[in-house]
Amino acid sequence: VMLHSTLALSLLLIAVTSNLAMAIKKEKRAPQTLSRGWGDDITWVQTYEEGLYQAKKSNKPLMVIHHLEDCQYCQALKKAFAENEEIQEMAQNNFIMLNLMHETTDKNLSPDGQYVPRIMFVDPSLTVRADITGRYSNRLYTYEPQDMTFLIENMKKALRIIQTEL
């Protein structure tokens, strides 16, 4: 009988600890609904104001991605963005990251209109970098899935600004 209860107890213990481990794992993953598919390992801020505050505090550039759920161009860009390891790593380590499905009241974030997808950078002095643009003259801040190397260059440019200008 003693052996039986010890066995039952250790099985119970195993069940409890694995449930606990799963709960802890879940807990850690929970806030990542903010990623909306752009990268679950990236820490995302919830609002533009929080992003500005974190950028200033941490001396990292803020990267703002405007997108909409039912926009096919946004979906295609999101997939390319999420699958690109270099982008994910830089976003995770060197940037304050925000993705928005609505416009902010800051008109500086829409210098050439409110279209999606649109990616803009704000430096730690809280200046929107209208000088970091994509490849398309009709929509300066848009990127397409094949533009990931160009986006990487722009991310590096945003990081260089901090070292050289600020």
From TrEMBL:
<keyword id="KW-0732">Signal</keyword>
<dbReference type="Pfam" id="PF13899">
    <property type="entry name" value="Thioredoxin_7"/>
</dbReference>
<dbReference type="GO" id="GO:0002162">
    <property type="term" value="F:dystroglycan binding"/>
</dbReference>
<comment type="similarity">
    <text>Belongs to the AGR family.</text>
</comment>
<dbReference type="GO" id="GO:0005783">
    <property type="term" value="C:endoplasmic reticulum"/>
</dbReference>
<protein>
    <submittedName>
        <fullName>AGR3 protein</fullName>
    </submittedName>
</protein>
<dbReference type="InterPro" id="IPR051099">
    <property type="entry name" value="AGR/TXD"/>
</dbReference>
<feature type="signal peptide">
    <location>
        <begin position="1"/>
        <end position="23"/>
    </location>
</feature>
<dbReference type="InterPro" id="IPR036249">
    <property type="entry name" value="Thioredoxin-like_sf"/>
</dbReference>
